[in-house]
Specification:
Elements lengths: L1 H23 L1 E8 L6 H20 L7 E8 L4 H13 L5 E3 L4 H13 L3 E4 L14 E3 L4 H14 L4 E7 L2 H17 L2 E8 L7 H8 L5 E5 L4 H12 L5 E3 L6 H7 L7 E4 L15 H15 L5 H20 L4 H9 L2 E3 L4 E3 L14 E6 L2 E4 L3
Parallel strand pairs: 1-2, 1-3, 3-4, 4-5, 6-7, 6-8, 8-9
Antiparallel strand pairs: 10-13, 11-12, 13-14
Helix pairs in contact: 2-11, 3-4, 5-6, 8-9, 11-12
């Protein structure tokens, strides 16, 4: 009997040893994306992108000889779920880093948790408050709100527009953008005559748009990431609000323009160059990477690439590049490596620093417009 027990314990110890060795031979990276739900236009391409990348990296031998073990959680854009998944990834899965979430509201809910647990977070959400003020362990890949607004206001001035109406969704991204628009408008010579917020689940926005029309505005800025972006365009046409419509950089998925149909023609918005990679000069520093990602994604999934998938591409590759730079998976060393990393990504050329956990400048944007149901660089 004692001999059987001894044999059993030996097998058990060997088994545990194998599991420990297996765990040591992988690099666990967590991801929280809104794969389903109201923000699925963001989360679905993000999830597909990181899975494709991880498969490619692992097929080539992994990172520093170790395979990436990717753990994706679908939050459905629900902050409560994002909090739960974050704790699970930290406490149970013991991941090296977390990429995502898809939305600013979710990110702001887990920012403090990651900071308190010294967990690297590379968010795929855009609100500037994610990295301003800087938190030691928190980074983000989308361009800043303030930079997007600077491009919008610059374009408005070139068109002689000085009086505008603002719409924003009642999400973390919408709230942050609304605040930045009001804050930055005076210095740009822009008068925000009216600013209204709508529910992210709204199906009809004619009533709120009628309020804007009554104020004799020269343009509308809509700041949101939800399907209502296309509803705004349709409802503006229906009530005869015939002024330019500017969208945030949250408009960077062609599905939004397709849903708007003819009403979407002429929409203006700032975005990264992934959407217009075919028009870039061969010597552009992003051209090769953007063209490769676009080709691989569209061939694999049979759908157009979008900036949101690009944000996830950048988030994962920033972690990977930092691991390589750090020469291992010590979290503090990886964090330090991110903070000093220069990286050519889909969103631009990232140059992180202790004071800048986004790493992108105004030159990461182009002003885009919708023409013939496609995205093209805007030319006045």
């Amino acid at each position: 009997m004692k001999r059987l027990v001894a044999v059993f314990m030996a097998v058990l110890v060997c088994g545990l040893g194998s599991q420990s060795l297996q765990a040591a031979d992988t690099i666990k990276i967590g991801a929280i994306f809104a794969v389903t739900g109201p923000a699925s236009f963001l989360g679905a391409p993000e999830s597909k992108t990181v899975q494709m990348l991880v498969d490619e990296i692992n097929a080539k031998g992994g990172v520093l000889g170790k395979q990436i073990e990717l753990i994706i959680k679908d939050s459905g854009a629900n902050p409560t779920k994002a909090i739960s998944f974050t704790k699970q990834l930290i406490e149970e899965e013991k991941v090296l880093a977390i990429i995502g979430p898809s939305t600013s509201g979710e990110t702001m809910q887990i920012k403090g948790i990651c900071e308190a647990n010294k967990m690297i977070l590379v968010s795929c959400a855009a609100a500037e408050v994610i990295v301003n003020p800087v938190a030691k362990y928190v980074f983000k890949t989308p361009q800043k709100d303030s930079q997007a607004i600077a491009w919008i206001f610059k374009t408005m001035k070139s068109l002689g527009i000085s009086r505008i109406g603002v719409l924003s969704g009642n999400t973390g991204f919408g709230k942050a953008g609304k605040g930045q628009l009001s804050k930055l408008a005076p210095a740009a010579g822009i008068d925000v005559a009216i600013s209204e917020t709508y529910d992210k689940r709204a199906k009809d926005l004619t009533a709120v748009l009628a309020k804007l029309k009554a104020r004799n505005i020269q343009a509308v800025v809509n700041w949101s990431i939800v399907p209502a972006q296309s509803i705004v365009a349709k409802n503006m046409k229906q009530i005869g609000l015939d002024v330019p419509l500017f969208q945030s950089h949250g408009f960077g998925n062609i599905k939004y323009a397709q849903q708007a149909g003819k009403a979407g023609e002429g929409i203006l918005f700032p975005a990264g160059r992934l959407l217009v990679v075919d028009t870039l000069a061969d010597g552009h520093p992003q051209k090769t990477l953007l063209a490769g990602y676009k080709k691989d994604y569209e061939r694999k999934y049979g759908e157009d690439v979008c900036t949101f998938g690009g944000h996830a591409y950048d988030a994962l590759m920033i972690v990977v590049k930092a691991i390589e730079k750090a020469g291992g998976t010590d979290r503090e060393k990886v964090r330090d490596a991110i903070e000093s990393l220069t990286f050519v990504g889909t969103g631009g050329v990232f140059k992180f620093s202790p004071k800048d956990h986004n790493g992108l400048g105004l030159d990461a944007f182009e002003m885009m417009t919708v023409k013939d149901n496609k995205f093209v660089i805007y030319k006045k």
